[in-house]
Hints:
By secondary structure, this protein is mainly alpha-helical.
Amino acid sequence: MLKDITLGQYFPGNTMAHCLDPRTKIILVTLYVIALFNASTVYGYAMMAVVLLTCVRVSKVGLKVLVRGLKPVVLIVVFTGLLNLFFTAGDPIFSWWIISISWQGVINASFMVMRILLLIMGTFLMTYTTSPIRLTDGLEQLLNPLKKIKVPVHELSMMMSIALRFIPTLIEETDKIMSAQKARGADFESGNLMQKAKAMLPLLVPLFISAFRRADELAIAMESRCYHGGDGRTKLHVLRYALRDYVALALGVVILVAAFIL
């Protein structure tokens, strides 16, 4: 299960999706989310699914990788779908005791599940095709106007970059701790849900110690390199828009308008 958590991982490549400016990708994902939440018909969701599949094909990341990344959130998706299925009023098609299922509930549950899946896969695709450093630079550039009102844009972007970068590291560390404890007789798979949760408690102490140790090492490394925030810092790779970025943004606006129309 831990190996299926792919958030924060970057898959290097030289495709059009990888070469886009990170600011363009952040704006496109924002437009994608807005269009997705405004979709309310089968045609709208079908269009958004086609858009996502096209982006997956262009990025060459692979649909299997996106589907594998959905495994940790399956329970949340199913729970959300059931809530919409059983608690949406409408014309009942099945009723027993306090349980009632309506056509409107079926439609709302289907749309909600589709929306969550498309949302997660769309945002994951951006992290798969953008390195944390470029993503940080793009976010910082987009939030630059907030510096005028004393918002610590650079620090916020840096924290986001560090968080994304350390998600795979902490997952790998957790997997190593679990393997070591299994070798010593620990059982993380048998029993009910509460017993499994209790079995996971011994993981927390070594995991927190490891996380604090890595955080301390990172702080020392940054201080030894004279890091002092964003004031006066320059960029090794300066972000510049290219023609492909303007074309991608134009396509994003067209998709957003089409989603409103549908």
